[in-house]
Write a structure and sequence with these properties.
Order of helices and strands: HHHHHH
Number of strands: 0
Radius of gyration: 37 Å
Number of helices: 6
Shape: elongated
Structural class: mainly alpha
Low-confidence stretches: 266-274
Protein backbone atom coordinates (compact mmCIF):
# COMPACT_ATOMS: atom_id res chain seq x y z
CA UNK A 1 0.00 0.00 0.00
CA UNK A 2 2.83 2.35 0.87
CA UNK A 3 4.49 1.59 -2.48
CA UNK A 4 1.26 2.45 -4.27
CA UNK A 5 0.95 5.69 -2.33
CA UNK A 6 4.54 6.57 -3.14
CA UNK A 7 4.00 5.76 -6.80
CA UNK A 8 0.85 7.88 -6.90
CA UNK A 9 2.59 10.78 -5.21
CA UNK A 10 5.29 10.60 -7.87
CA UNK A 11 2.69 11.03 -10.63
CA UNK A 12 0.99 14.03 -8.94
CA UNK A 13 3.69 16.56 -9.98
CA UNK A 14 3.69 15.15 -13.48
CA UNK A 15 -0.08 15.46 -13.60
CA UNK A 16 0.13 19.04 -12.35
CA UNK A 17 2.76 19.83 -14.95
CA UNK A 18 0.58 18.27 -17.65
CA UNK A 19 -2.45 20.27 -16.55
CA UNK A 20 -0.39 23.45 -16.37
CA UNK A 21 1.05 22.80 -19.83
CA UNK A 22 -2.44 22.16 -21.24
CA UNK A 23 -3.76 25.37 -19.67
CA UNK A 24 -0.80 27.30 -21.00
CA UNK A 25 -1.37 25.93 -24.47
CA UNK A 26 -5.04 26.81 -24.23
CA UNK A 27 -4.30 30.38 -23.12
CA UNK A 28 -1.67 30.70 -25.83
CA UNK A 29 -4.17 29.50 -28.42
CA UNK A 30 -6.74 31.99 -27.16
CA UNK A 31 -4.16 34.77 -27.31
CA UNK A 32 -3.20 33.80 -30.84
CA UNK A 33 -6.86 33.75 -31.83
CA UNK A 34 -7.41 37.17 -30.31
CA UNK A 35 -4.27 38.46 -32.00
CA UNK A 36 -5.37 36.99 -35.32
CA UNK A 37 -8.79 38.63 -34.93
CA UNK A 38 -7.17 41.98 -34.21
CA UNK A 39 -4.85 41.62 -37.20
CA UNK A 40 -7.85 40.86 -39.44
CA UNK A 41 -9.70 43.87 -38.03
CA UNK A 42 -6.67 46.09 -38.68
CA UNK A 43 -6.33 44.74 -42.20
CA UNK A 44 -10.03 45.41 -42.86
CA UNK A 45 -9.71 48.93 -41.45
CA UNK A 46 -6.61 49.51 -43.58
CA UNK A 47 -8.50 48.26 -46.64
CA UNK A 48 -11.37 50.64 -45.85
CA UNK A 49 -8.91 53.51 -45.52
CA UNK A 50 -7.37 52.60 -48.88
CA UNK A 51 -10.79 52.44 -50.53
CA UNK A 52 -11.77 55.74 -48.95
CA UNK A 53 -8.56 57.39 -50.17
CA UNK A 54 -9.13 55.95 -53.64
CA UNK A 55 -12.71 57.26 -53.71
CA UNK A 56 -11.61 60.69 -52.50
CA UNK A 57 -8.82 60.85 -55.09
CA UNK A 58 -11.25 59.73 -57.80
CA UNK A 59 -13.77 62.39 -56.78
CA UNK A 60 -11.05 65.05 -56.71
CA UNK A 61 -9.87 64.05 -60.18
CA UNK A 62 -13.47 64.07 -61.39
CA UNK A 63 -14.05 67.54 -59.90
CA UNK A 64 -10.87 68.83 -61.55
CA UNK A 65 -11.95 67.32 -64.84
CA UNK A 66 -15.41 68.86 -64.60
CA UNK A 67 -13.97 72.23 -63.67
CA UNK A 68 -11.48 72.22 -66.54
CA UNK A 69 -14.13 70.98 -68.97
CA UNK A 70 -16.55 73.70 -67.90
CA UNK A 71 -13.84 76.35 -68.13
CA UNK A 72 -12.82 75.27 -71.62
CA UNK A 73 -16.46 75.07 -72.77
CA UNK A 74 -17.14 78.62 -71.59
CA UNK A 75 -13.92 79.87 -73.19
CA UNK A 76 -14.68 78.03 -76.42
CA UNK A 77 -18.25 79.33 -76.53
CA UNK A 78 -17.07 82.89 -75.92
CA UNK A 79 -14.35 82.75 -78.58
CA UNK A 80 -16.60 81.17 -81.19
CA UNK A 81 -19.38 83.66 -80.49
CA UNK A 82 -17.05 86.66 -80.62
CA UNK A 83 -15.38 85.39 -83.80
CA UNK A 84 -18.72 85.00 -85.57
CA UNK A 85 -19.91 88.34 -84.22
CA UNK A 86 -16.84 90.31 -85.33
CA UNK A 87 -16.89 88.83 -88.82
CA UNK A 88 -20.63 89.44 -89.27
CA UNK A 89 -20.62 92.97 -87.86
CA UNK A 90 -17.62 93.92 -89.97
CA UNK A 91 -19.38 92.58 -93.06
CA UNK A 92 -22.58 94.51 -92.24
CA UNK A 93 -21.37 97.83 -90.83
CA UNK A 94 -17.84 98.02 -92.14
CA UNK A 95 -15.31 99.61 -89.81
CA UNK A 96 -17.77 101.36 -87.50
CA UNK A 97 -16.53 101.27 -83.92
CA UNK A 98 -20.04 100.85 -82.52
CA UNK A 99 -22.58 99.08 -84.75
CA UNK A 100 -26.26 99.84 -84.57
CA UNK A 101 -28.36 97.89 -82.07
CA UNK A 102 -30.52 96.43 -84.81
CA UNK A 103 -27.42 95.12 -86.59
CA UNK A 104 -26.15 93.53 -83.38
CA UNK A 105 -29.54 91.92 -82.77
CA UNK A 106 -29.74 90.58 -86.33
CA UNK A 107 -26.25 89.10 -86.09
CA UNK A 108 -26.91 87.51 -82.70
CA UNK A 109 -30.26 86.06 -83.77
CA UNK A 110 -28.86 84.69 -87.03
CA UNK A 111 -25.96 83.10 -85.18
CA UNK A 112 -28.33 81.53 -82.65
CA UNK A 113 -30.47 80.02 -85.42
CA UNK A 114 -27.38 78.63 -87.16
CA UNK A 115 -26.17 77.15 -83.87
CA UNK A 116 -29.53 75.47 -83.31
CA UNK A 117 -29.47 73.95 -86.79
CA UNK A 118 -25.87 72.86 -87.30
CA UNK A 119 -24.53 72.29 -83.80
CA UNK A 120 -27.63 70.30 -82.91
CA UNK A 121 -26.75 67.95 -85.76
CA UNK A 122 -23.15 67.86 -84.44
CA UNK A 123 -24.53 66.88 -81.03
CA UNK A 124 -26.12 63.86 -82.66
CA UNK A 125 -22.76 62.97 -84.18
CA UNK A 126 -21.03 62.99 -80.77
CA UNK A 127 -23.78 61.11 -78.93
CA UNK A 128 -21.47 58.16 -78.21
CA UNK A 129 -18.86 60.33 -76.44
CA UNK A 130 -18.38 58.96 -72.92
CA UNK A 131 -17.00 61.70 -70.69
CA UNK A 132 -18.22 60.32 -67.36
CA UNK A 133 -15.55 60.03 -64.68
CA UNK A 134 -11.85 60.62 -64.76
CA UNK A 135 -9.83 58.16 -66.84
CA UNK A 136 -6.89 57.94 -69.21
CA UNK A 137 -8.00 58.80 -72.74
CA UNK A 138 -6.32 59.62 -76.00
CA UNK A 139 -6.24 63.01 -77.68
CA UNK A 140 -9.08 62.17 -80.07
CA UNK A 141 -11.33 60.91 -77.27
CA UNK A 142 -10.63 64.01 -75.17
CA UNK A 143 -11.30 66.29 -78.14
CA UNK A 144 -14.62 64.59 -78.91
CA UNK A 145 -15.71 64.78 -75.26
CA UNK A 146 -14.74 68.45 -75.01
CA UNK A 147 -16.45 69.28 -78.32
CA UNK A 148 -19.58 67.44 -77.18
CA UNK A 149 -19.63 69.44 -73.94
CA UNK A 150 -18.97 72.72 -75.77
CA UNK A 151 -21.92 72.37 -78.15
CA UNK A 152 -24.60 73.11 -75.55
CA UNK A 153 -22.50 75.90 -74.04
CA UNK A 154 -22.23 77.54 -77.48
CA UNK A 155 -26.01 77.27 -77.78
CA UNK A 156 -26.50 78.75 -74.29
CA UNK A 157 -24.03 81.54 -75.00
CA UNK A 158 -25.71 82.36 -78.32
CA UNK A 159 -29.11 82.69 -76.67
CA UNK A 160 -27.58 84.80 -73.90
CA UNK A 161 -26.14 87.13 -76.55
CA UNK A 162 -29.57 87.42 -78.17
CA UNK A 163 -31.09 88.47 -74.83
CA UNK A 164 -28.24 90.93 -74.21
CA UNK A 165 -28.71 92.47 -77.68
CA UNK A 166 -32.43 92.95 -76.96
CA UNK A 167 -31.68 94.61 -73.63
CA UNK A 168 -29.31 97.01 -75.42
CA UNK A 169 -32.22 98.66 -77.26
CA UNK A 170 -32.94 100.69 -74.12
CA UNK A 171 -30.09 102.45 -72.34
CA UNK A 172 -29.47 101.16 -68.84
CA UNK A 173 -29.37 103.66 -65.94
CA UNK A 174 -25.90 105.07 -65.50
CA UNK A 175 -25.03 107.42 -62.68
CA UNK A 176 -21.83 109.32 -62.06
CA UNK A 177 -20.61 112.17 -59.88
CA UNK A 178 -22.03 114.74 -62.27
CA UNK A 179 -25.00 112.97 -63.81
CA UNK A 180 -28.10 111.24 -62.49
CA UNK A 181 -30.33 109.19 -64.76
CA UNK A 182 -33.86 110.59 -64.88
CA UNK A 183 -36.49 108.60 -63.04
CA UNK A 184 -38.57 108.16 -66.20
CA UNK A 185 -35.65 106.45 -67.92
CA UNK A 186 -35.15 104.21 -64.90
CA UNK A 187 -38.77 103.14 -64.92
CA UNK A 188 -38.69 102.61 -68.70
CA UNK A 189 -35.64 100.38 -68.44
CA UNK A 190 -37.12 98.50 -65.50
CA UNK A 191 -40.34 97.75 -67.39
CA UNK A 192 -38.44 96.89 -70.56
CA UNK A 193 -36.06 94.51 -68.78
CA UNK A 194 -39.02 92.94 -66.99
CA UNK A 195 -40.71 92.34 -70.35
CA UNK A 196 -37.52 90.79 -71.75
CA UNK A 197 -37.28 88.56 -68.66
CA UNK A 198 -40.87 87.38 -69.10
CA UNK A 199 -40.29 86.82 -72.82
CA UNK A 200 -37.14 84.75 -72.27
CA UNK A 201 -38.91 82.75 -69.55
CA UNK A 202 -41.85 82.06 -71.87
CA UNK A 203 -39.40 80.93 -74.55
CA UNK A 204 -37.82 78.52 -72.08
CA UNK A 205 -41.22 77.14 -71.01
CA UNK A 206 -42.33 76.67 -74.62
CA UNK A 207 -39.03 74.93 -75.41
CA UNK A 208 -39.57 72.54 -72.50
CA UNK A 209 -43.11 71.82 -73.66
CA UNK A 210 -41.87 71.15 -77.19
CA UNK A 211 -39.25 68.74 -75.83
CA UNK A 212 -41.89 66.91 -73.80
CA UNK A 213 -44.19 66.63 -76.82
CA UNK A 214 -41.35 65.21 -78.93
CA UNK A 215 -40.40 62.73 -76.22
CA UNK A 216 -43.98 61.47 -75.78
CA UNK A 217 -44.76 61.17 -79.47
CA UNK A 218 -44.47 57.73 -81.04
CA UNK A 219 -42.20 58.44 -83.99
CA UNK A 220 -42.42 55.94 -86.84
CA UNK A 221 -40.19 57.79 -89.27
CA UNK A 222 -36.43 57.53 -89.55
CA UNK A 223 -35.79 60.85 -87.82
CA UNK A 224 -37.53 59.74 -84.63
CA UNK A 225 -34.34 58.71 -82.90
CA UNK A 226 -32.64 61.98 -83.80
CA UNK A 227 -35.50 64.15 -82.57
CA UNK A 228 -35.92 62.13 -79.38
CA UNK A 229 -32.22 62.37 -78.59
CA UNK A 230 -32.08 66.12 -79.21
CA UNK A 231 -35.25 66.73 -77.19
CA UNK A 232 -33.97 64.64 -74.27
CA UNK A 233 -30.60 66.42 -74.34
CA UNK A 234 -32.10 69.90 -74.44
CA UNK A 235 -34.69 69.07 -71.79
CA UNK A 236 -31.97 67.75 -69.48
CA UNK A 237 -29.44 70.55 -70.00
CA UNK A 238 -31.82 73.50 -70.72
CA UNK A 239 -29.26 75.74 -72.48
CA UNK A 240 -31.71 78.65 -72.54
CA UNK A 241 -31.41 79.04 -68.75
CA UNK A 242 -28.29 81.23 -69.14
CA UNK A 243 -30.18 83.85 -71.13
CA UNK A 244 -33.13 83.71 -68.73
CA UNK A 245 -30.79 84.22 -65.79
CA UNK A 246 -29.14 87.19 -67.51
CA UNK A 247 -32.50 88.83 -68.18
CA UNK A 248 -33.78 88.36 -64.65
CA UNK A 249 -30.51 89.57 -63.16
CA UNK A 250 -30.69 92.66 -65.37
CA UNK A 251 -34.20 93.37 -64.14
CA UNK A 252 -33.77 92.51 -60.46
CA UNK A 253 -30.36 94.02 -59.81
CA UNK A 254 -29.42 96.66 -62.37
CA UNK A 255 -32.90 97.94 -63.21
CA UNK A 256 -34.34 97.82 -59.70
CA UNK A 257 -31.96 97.45 -56.76
CA UNK A 258 -28.87 99.18 -58.15
CA UNK A 259 -30.86 101.86 -59.93
CA UNK A 260 -32.81 103.07 -56.93
CA UNK A 261 -29.85 102.61 -54.61
CA UNK A 262 -27.89 104.99 -56.86
CA UNK A 263 -30.86 107.36 -56.90
CA UNK A 264 -31.03 107.49 -53.10
CA UNK A 265 -27.26 108.14 -52.80
CA UNK A 266 -27.03 110.63 -55.65
CA UNK A 267 -25.69 114.11 -54.74
CA UNK A 268 -28.77 115.54 -56.44
CA UNK A 269 -31.18 113.52 -54.31
CA UNK A 270 -32.81 115.39 -51.37
CA UNK A 271 -31.65 112.72 -48.93
CA UNK A 272 -28.04 113.46 -49.80
CA UNK A 273 -28.39 116.97 -48.31
CA UNK A 274 -30.49 116.75 -45.14
Amino acid sequence: YQRRVRGATCFVPLLCLALAWARLQKERGMEQEVLHTRVLALEQELQKQRELKYNVDYELHDIRKQFMTQAFTVLGAYLVSQFAYQISVTALDGDNSKPANISVFAVRLTWYILVLIFLTAAKWGTRHADGIGSARRGFRANFVILFDATILMVDAWAFKDVVASILAFVDAPHDSATYTTPTSQRITYMLFSFGVSIGSWVYGVLSCILCIVILRKDWRCGCGGYLTFIAATFFEEMPWSLGIGLAWNEFQYKATVKSFRSLSTSPYHPRAHP
